[in-house]
From TrEMBL:
<dbReference type="InterPro" id="IPR003802">
    <property type="entry name" value="Sporulation_regulator_WhiA"/>
</dbReference>
<keyword id="KW-0131">Cell cycle</keyword>
<dbReference type="GO" id="GO:0043937">
    <property type="term" value="P:regulation of sporulation"/>
</dbReference>
<dbReference type="InterPro" id="IPR004042">
    <property type="entry name" value="Intein_endonuc_central"/>
</dbReference>
<dbReference type="GO" id="GO:0003677">
    <property type="term" value="F:DNA binding"/>
</dbReference>
<comment type="function">
    <text>Involved in cell division and chromosome segregation.</text>
</comment>
<dbReference type="InterPro" id="IPR018478">
    <property type="entry name" value="Sporu_reg_WhiA_N_dom"/>
</dbReference>
<dbReference type="Pfam" id="PF14527">
    <property type="entry name" value="LAGLIDADG_WhiA"/>
</dbReference>
<dbReference type="Pfam" id="PF02650">
    <property type="entry name" value="HTH_WhiA"/>
</dbReference>
<protein>
    <recommendedName>
        <fullName>Probable cell division protein WhiA</fullName>
    </recommendedName>
</protein>
<dbReference type="GO" id="GO:0004519">
    <property type="term" value="F:endonuclease activity"/>
</dbReference>
<comment type="similarity">
    <text>Belongs to the WhiA family.</text>
</comment>
<dbReference type="Pfam" id="PF10298">
    <property type="entry name" value="WhiA_N"/>
</dbReference>
<dbReference type="InterPro" id="IPR039518">
    <property type="entry name" value="WhiA_LAGLIDADG_dom"/>
</dbReference>
<keyword id="KW-0238">DNA-binding</keyword>
<dbReference type="InterPro" id="IPR023054">
    <property type="entry name" value="Sporulation_regulator_WhiA_C"/>
</dbReference>
<dbReference type="InterPro" id="IPR027434">
    <property type="entry name" value="Homing_endonucl"/>
</dbReference>
Length: 315
């Protein structure tokens, strides 16, 4: 089961906080993945198509519980994608128009409602239920082992912006983006995704996100340390090679035999250990020397070579 399916299933099992929350959840389900059509007799037919069992189960349960309406369910299995397709149909029946008004799909004059109807999102708990239903119906939550991303695909710009405003009212930053004739209400921040799922009651999903973030943090820290160590080793290897070349230059210029004891000791150590850093090389000295002390000896050798070649120091 994908992480999105796990989140949807967990949200679908959340208990309503008040007697009106189920209406808000059902309204969101119908609005996000439902299709309303007018029959030849001037009546209505509502279809809800989904590949998510949680959506189908919730849709049928709430329709029977709240609306007391007849529903027809057709289940098909896609051979190509190997998933079930659920088609829930509410055929034309006496109380269907009243139900559509109750759910905020139609207004009292029979016109379509463009945004989120106020009466189904009047209370804070009902607003949470509406967002929860929208996420169950059209939501996607990326596996936290990869990138953090949550989005809800909806139809209609006004509805998308109203839904984003409901999420903003919960203290979570949401954005709206047009996408292939539809709209996506999306969240990119891991903290915001955690906060939203926590407020909606998906505590198991929140725990998985926290665990994934902890693992990512450890991996990132290890990678930073490894990269820093590799960079240090590369710099040390480059510096050591330049010091070997400096010693060879001393030999060619005939300066090696007249070196002071301290400088000769450094040259001998470097030739014996061409791969060590100055810090490690200093530990082999007798007595041990600091990295700074050895670096100053390198500078003295560089100055001697530059003066012998008639160069200006630092060129």
């Amino acid at each position: 089961m994908s992480f999105t399916a796990e989140v949807r299933d967990e949200l679908a099992r959340c208990a309503p906080e008040c007697t009106y929350c189920d209406v808000s959840t059902l309204a969101a389900l119908v609005r996000v993945c439902g299709t309303l059509s007018i029959t030849g007799k001037g009546g209505y037919q509502l279809q809800v198509a989904t590949e998510t069992g949680a959506v189908a189960r919730t849709m049928i349960e709430l329709t029977h519980k709240i609306l007391k309406l007849k529903t027809d369910l057709t289940v098909r299995r896609s051979i190509l994608h190997k998933v079930r397709n659920y088609l829930i149909v509410l055929p034309d029946q006496p109380d269907l128009e009243k139900a559509l008004v109750l759910l905020g799909i139609l207004d009292r004059s029979g016109g379509l409602v463009a945004g989120v109807p106020r009466h189904v999102a009047n209370r804070a708990c009902c607003r949470r239920a509406f967002v929860r239903g929208s996420l169950i119906a059209g939501g996607f939550v990326a596996d936290p082992k990869g990138d953090f991303h949550l989005e809800i695909a909806v139809q209609g710009e006004q509805f998308a912006r109203d839904l984003a405003a409901l999420i903003e009212g919960m203290g979570v930053h949401a954005r709206v983006n047009p996408r292939r004739g539809a709209y996506a209400v999306y969240i990119k921040s891991a903290e915001d995704i955690k906060m939203l799922l926590s407020k909606l009651g998906a505590n198991r999903a929140v725990a998985e996100i926290e665990e994934a973030r902890a693992v990512k943090s450890v991996k990132n820290d290890v990678n930073r340390r490894v990269n820093a160590e590799l960079a240090n080793q590369t710099r040390s290897a480059g510096a050591a090679q330049r010091q070997i070349e400096l010693i060879e230059a001393l030999e060619k210029l005939g300066l090696r035999r007249d070196l002071p004891e301290a400088l000769e000791t450094f040259c001998a150590l470097r030739e014996a250990h061409p791969d060590l850093s100055l810090r490690d090389l200093g530990q082999l000295s007798d007595p041990p020397l600091s990295k700074s002390a050895l670096y100053h000896r390198v500078l003295r050798l560089e100055k001697m070579v530059e003066e012998a070649r008639g160069e200006t120091p630092g060129e």
